[in-house]
Specification:
By secondary structure, the protein is of the alpha+beta class. It is 23% helix and 39% strand. The chain contains four helices and five strands. Strands 1-3-4-5-2 form a five-stranded antiparallel beta sheet.
Length: 135
């Protein structure tokens, strides 16, 4: 792997989520909170609609850099702040876009900053991944 420079975009992608995606994630994670699949429950608690699981959004975001890294084992730390929900429309679904850029390079590691958006709104704040660059 060539050493990246601060500012380099190392990966980017858009993931399309559907209500089926949410049901599958609920089954895998065990998080069956009805705000993730029932419009009526989401509305009753004041939400703008059915929401994607925060951990689903977080997971698909970090996975964006794995092809660039070549090995998920190079991920040393990962953290985010959940700032805005991803509303998944019953018909249209939702697109989540991730752009991964190098924020800092230091002693065989790099900080990768993830910009994660849905509908032109940043949904994860301070999404940063520390990765090992050397083999």
């Amino acid at each position: 792997m060539t050493a990246p420079a601060v500012g380099d975009v190392v990966a980017e992608r858009t993931v399309h989520l559907t209500r089926e995606s949410l049901v599958r994630y609920a089954g895998a994670s065990g998080d069956f909170n009805p705000i993730h699949y029932r419009d009526d429950v989401a509305a009753q608690v004041g939400l703008p609609g059915v929401l994607a699981h925060g951990m689903l959004t977080m997971g698909l975001s970090v996975e964006t850099i794995v092809p660039w890294l070549g090995d998920a084992g190079r991920i040393l730390e990962y953290g985010v702040r959940f700032t805005r929900p991803v509303v998944v429309d019953a018909d249209a679904g939702a697109d989540v876009t991730v752009v991964a850029s190098v924020g800092a390079v230091d002693d065989g590691t790099a900080r990768i900053d993830l910009t994660v958006t849905h509908a032109d709104t940043t949904v994860l704040g301070k999404a940063q991944v520390r990765v090992r660059l050397d083999a």
